[in-house]
Amino acid sequence: MFDKILIANRGEIACRVMKTAQRMGIKTVAIYSDADKHALHAEMADEKIHIGPPPAKQSYIVIDKVMQAIRDSGAQAVHPGYGFLSENPKFAQALEDAGVAFIGPPKGAIEAMGDKITSKKLAKEAGVNTVPGYMGLIEDAEEAVKISAEIGYPVMIKASAGGGGKGMRIAWNDEEAREGFQSSKNEAASSFGDDRIFIEKFVTQPRHIEIQVLCDAHGNGIYLNERECSIQRRNQKVVEEAPSPFLDPETRKAMGEQAVALAKAVGYTSAGTVEFIVDGDKNFFFLEMNTRLQVEHPVTELITGVDLVEQMIRVANGEALSITQDDIGINGWAIENRLYAEDPYRNFLPSIGRLTRYRPPEEGPMGGGVVRNDTGVFEGGEISMYYDPMIAKLCTWAPSRGEAIETMRTALDAFEVEGIGHNLPFLSAVMDHPRFVSGEITTAFIAEEYPEGFHGVELETDALRRVAAACVAMNRVAEIRRSRISGCLDNHERKVGEDWVVALQGHDFPVTVKADREGSTVRFEDGTELRVQGDWTPGDSLARLTVGDAPLVLKVDKITQGFRIRTRGADMKVHVRSPRQAELAALMPEKLPPDTSKMLLCPMPGLVVTLAVAEGDEVQEGQALCTVEAMKMENILRAERSGKVSKINAGPGDSLAVDDVIMEFE
Amino acid sequence: MKDILHELEDRRRNARLGGGQKRLDAQHAKGKLTARERLELLLDEGSFEEYDMFVAHRCTDFGMEQNRPYGDGVVTGWGTINGRMVYVFSQDFTVLGGSVSATHAQKICKIMDMAVQNGAPVIGLNDSGGARIQEGVDSLAGYGEVFQRNIEASGVVPQISVIMGPCAGGAVYSPAMTDFIFMVKDSSYMFVTGPDVVKTVTNEVVTAEELGGAITHTRKSSVADGAFENDVEALAEVRRLVDFLPLNNRDAPPVRPFFDEVDRVEASLDTIIPENPNLPYDMKELILKVADEADFYEIQEEFAKNIITGFIRLEGQTVGVVANQPMVLAGCLDIDSSRKAARFVRFCDAFEIPLLTFVDVPGFLPGTGQEYGGVIKHGAKLLFAYGEATVPKVTVITRKAYGGAYDVMASKHLRADVNYAWPTAQIAVMGAKGAAEIIHRADLADPEKIQKHADAYEDRFANPFIAAERGFIDEVIQPRSTRRRVSRAFAMLRKKKRSMPWKKHDNIPL
């Protein structure tokens, strides 16, 4: 076995690989850029080697620098992680030349699968289903109908030069094929000046389902079931699970066998993934093969018990697989949620900055399930703009899909991340979405269910009552503590009442709270009661409570007369007031937030460098308005629409906070 | 006999109706609560004891004798906030516009006298049209009596003003002399002369909101210490502030049970100082991570943001915090930040509230604007305030402590009790480059040499150890253990006694 391996990557995947290597007794070498000097992966490794400035182009993906680090460290093998150099045949070649083992597939396999057209051809030859289609020129409508019928409806008729949906038609029968061909052709001619048309099978209700394969250099190859990755936002995977709620054993077997056949056909070794698109009738078609460890590999590990990184290292060491296809079963269900440093309330704008708080839920058993969190960041660390915004992969396992989802909900609620914008609330919303829960998902899930973006979650009344009960119980503790201050007028101390009105998300709940040693009982107006138990004390940012019979985990911040509560994707102000306070508060005018559509708001904390316009200037959409420097980068802020600058509130040299108004328009 | 008892109830009911239902409704329509509703929110439920409910004015001019409502436009008395006594007055805009008559002023004076005698804060809720013009000089005399009491009570009991409606003309000077002024956004304003007079005299056209609204006074003038969305929030937050304050200058600051570990380690503080010394970081993160339960009551949050002032608790006991904010103007001292912090330090000293200072200061802001504005004297206010403060003083230098600003920010030389520095501290007369350019003027033409000299200066002074060698820094501490170290320092200082030489009073450079 190797004594020492170098991990040519950063972040969570570098840490993930090191964990296994360290368990196997192999020394690890990290490489790091200037931006990662104190990063978790650099701290975790036995050795770390500096590799250049922050941009990956000048550090992590410079083959010469990585090779130098390998020489300097004396590492015998390299794990590339994913991204960066993981699918770069030149890197594989360089390692081969240097006599260093590559913990991945042979160069030839990387090359073969790296090209879309070649890989499709090879797949077809290996007997893998590919999307049926006709690539040649189509003469006329009748030929189009003939070809369509051969492919089988529905079909997609596409302009060769097409894009953005132009010159694209879907046909479900001969008639539509005839019409579609003609209109596509016309549209293509007028839009692109190129009327060439081709036809391929239209995949309805498409799902992204991929097969994990594992091969050694001794001709053994197995598949480790599938992963469903249909929950994607603009082709970026967000939620993955294994197994897929959609596949039956026959389809799984067929897909698995085809995937292994393809791997064998290209002489694949190590772990790899064959991606398929699957339609509503469980027809599956080859998309591409990823010749590396996938981001979402943990869900496979959780249901098969196989450590894929360990297998990769062993295969790279020339060992034969010690597991056979028969050893691979499906044990329970695993779900992965990718935590991105992207602000869901700002259209998933990447967010950078200091993690002032980062407390993932504890790994290990939780409720009826298990939590695993692959992460590469730490509290006090910096999310930099140079790398992928994914900061953690939260996985849960449980015997069933429903339980795995439930464990994930709790785990997400218990995950504390502050200082940057992140998609935790969005993930919570997906985990509660009835369509996700039903398993009736396609790759269009996010686009269809969140067409206007994500704007938080409105909880159902039952959930609101549970939060209300929790807040009343917490508020009682906080108010009693306040009354225990020194300097009280003896015998005239404040008595904290039992009657309260909780206001949240537009609902008012008048309640009565009675407490005993074990907890509080909150009685609602309709006579129903909820029991609240937990050890929350004022100042705790996380409340782990039991409300009724079920756990409730809340992120808690103190606000005037109540709390800001975040749970299940909702972010709400909860006011807990005495009945009289509530009565008087109801008299207060509702203040609408200012209309910011006619303002230029500062999108990040930074320094105004220059102003490109003056008060009274007419500006056009897209015109540069001012430059704000943040994190040593100059960001040009542009006009979202045409208008006239009515007022400028900031000048060069001013430091601004997020949402400070830089200028206003008429 | 019963009839007589009934009559009392009738009279009370009458008094409680203030200016009548119509005017009470009008007050609500303006988004404001009535004088009595406000007291209900400010004080513990059922704790208000009203005095002088039946006081009526004695004016007989201009037909005033026809209209002598009970209470005379102000509700006064005492009650408790979380069980601790406070005296209150709440002006009633529904009664003669809350205007101040001789008797109205007399009611306020009565509770102020009681407050000073019995040692409890005074909280005034201001909502008044101004002087009762019909009374002429009697009204002015009334104001004067209140002013004199504000002055005498200053430093004896905390005085808090909440501006919840108009407060104009001479009336502004009573709040102006109290310790804290809070305003309600959109429904309160304060100015010496209103928009109409401004227009006549200076031709400036300005709205009442622009001239003296909550935004103006919290951001521009610094007259107000904070602003809140509405009456309910304002009064709840005043209650929260009172929880931090001692009742009078003879009492210790309050202590309450706390749910936090004294020796809580915050590993993330080890990385709060950026690698690049010219990059900012948010000092508030440090304050929140040091404080009990991350609870911080900020004073003048919107003004001179290059310095942060406010209250936290350590081990349940109030501590005043002053901290440079590197996020704004690099955390430098200037006229505004010096004035803001000086006033805060003097408040804390007057009421025996220990002072915690976090230092990251590159020096004083240069420029004609500052010099012409008198930064010398304004800067000296903070220096003076720190030097005269005899309360426990603990200082932590996180990064820069340059030049005179090092001395000002609660240095050892101003009798701070415990001075800590993080290993990232740089205590020097100035930044390395500037220093090199002065010491090695002969090499000015050669940037390479200057850089070398600068590096040498930095090696020598860009650390806390020279100061530590001299004992100006008592100990260099790990950032992560700041909470424990600071808490223990204040625990050690609980019985601190220190007095200044006898004087009638000092002569702070005002």
TrEMBL record, chain A:
Residues 1-451 form the Biotin carboxylation domain. Residues 587-666 form the Lipoyl-binding domain. This is propionyl-CoA carboxylase. Residues 120-317 form the ATP-grasp domain. It comes from Allosediminivita pacifica. PANTHER family: CARBOXYLASE:PYRUVATE/ACETYL-COA/PROPIONYL-COA CARBOXYLASE, METHYLCROTONOYL-COA CARBOXYLASE SUBUNIT ALPHA, MITOCHONDRIAL-RELATED. Pathway: Metabolic intermediate metabolism; propanoyl-CoA degradation; succinyl-CoA from propanoyl-CoA: step 1/3. Gene3D superfamilies: 2.40.50.100, 3.30.700.30, ATP-grasp fold, B domain. Its EC number is 6.4.1.3. One of its GO terms (molecular function) is metal ion binding. GO terms for biological process: lipid catabolic process. InterPro entries: ATP-grasp, BC-like_N, Biotin_BS, Biotin_carboxylase_complex, Biotin_carboxylation_dom, Biotin_COase_C, Biotin_lipoyl, CPAse_ATP-bd. Its cofactor is biotin. It catalyses: propanoyl-CoA + hydrogencarbonate + ATP = (S)-methylmalonyl-CoA + ADP + phosphate + H(+). The keyword Ligase applies. The lineage of its organism: Bacteria, Pseudomonadati, Pseudomonadota, Alphaproteobacteria, Rhodobacterales. Keywords: ATP-binding, Biotin, Ligase, Lipid degradation, Lipid metabolism, Magnesium, Manganese, Metal-binding, Nucleotide-binding. The keyword Iron-sulfur does not apply.
Automatic annotation (TrEMBL), chain B:
It comes from Allosediminivita pacifica. GO terms for cellular component: acetyl-CoA carboxylase complex. Signal peptide: none annotated. Pfam families: Carboxyl_trans. GO terms for biological process: carbon fixation. GO terms for molecular function: acetyl-CoA carboxylase activity; propionyl-CoA carboxylase activity; transferase activity. Residues 1-257 form the CoA carboxyltransferase N-terminal domain. Keywords: Ligase, Transferase. This is Propionyl-CoA carboxylase beta chain. PANTHER family: PROPIONYL-COA CARBOXYLASE BETA CHAIN (PTHR43842), PROPIONYL-COA CARBOXYLASE BETA CHAIN, MITOCHONDRIAL (PTHR43842:SF2). The keyword Cell wall biogenesis/degradation does not apply. The lineage of its organism: Bacteria, Pseudomonadati, Pseudomonadota, Alphaproteobacteria, Rhodobacterales. Residues 261-504 form the CoA carboxyltransferase C-terminal domain. Belongs to the AccD/PCCB family.
